[in-house]
Amino acid sequence: MEPIILDSVIDEIRISSQLGCDYNRCFHCGCCSNGCPFFAAMDDPPNAIIRMIQLGLIETALLSNTIWICVACNTCSMQCPMAVDIPAIMDRLRHLALKRGLGAAEPDVLQFHQTVLDSISRYGRTHKLDIMMRFKLTTRRWLQDWQVGLKMLAKRKLDLLPSKVQHIDEVRAFFPSVNEERTDE
């Protein structure tokens, strides 16, 4: 796929408004990468993604696995001396990639995200055991990571039964498409 180069101020304004923050404040000090707990799994550091955007290499940024690895923990933004909202940029880039039909650079990441959102819609918060079981059912990788699951159980990090929030309807209001599917059942 040929990278799209920004060739006008109009394109710059359009991309800037789609990303929702001023990415030009980044001066590539690398603090974001130093603080990121998932940096080792990324093919490009967060500041490189921002540099790609600054250079107009939007498609290259959209094809990077970095935008899918980011879990929006905000560690990078806390480290950034220019207060660039990197997780928001990564989120907008994921949306842009899907909108352009590029899909996810990481296998099964969309299914995992959907499983987490379903759990939040169902209980008002995440239930890790439910998320793990449903994700394993959909990906059919039954025994992958089973050691991690056992460690989490041993350390009491996995509740066997989910807990629900008191006003679940208020949480479900954030998930209209899921609610429509539930009423159809």
Please, could you describe this protein's structure?
There is one protein chain. The chain has helices spanning 9-19, 31-35, 46-54, 58-62, 66-69, 75-79, 86-99, 109-123, 128-139, 146-154, 168-172, 176-184. By secondary structure, the protein is mainly α. It folds into two domains: 9-99, no CATH class; 109-184, no CATH class. Helix 8 packs antiparallel against helix 9. It is globular and about 50 Å long.
Characterize this entry briefly.
Helix content is 56%, strand content 0%. With 185 residues, it is mostly helical. The protein is globular, with a radius of gyration of 19 Å.
Can you lay out the helices and strands and say which pair or pack?
Blueprint: H1 9-19, H2 31-35, H3 46-54, H4 58-62, H5 66-69, H6 75-79, H7 86-99, H8 109-123, H9 128-139, H10 146-154, H11 168-172, H12 176-184
Helix pairs in contact: 8-9
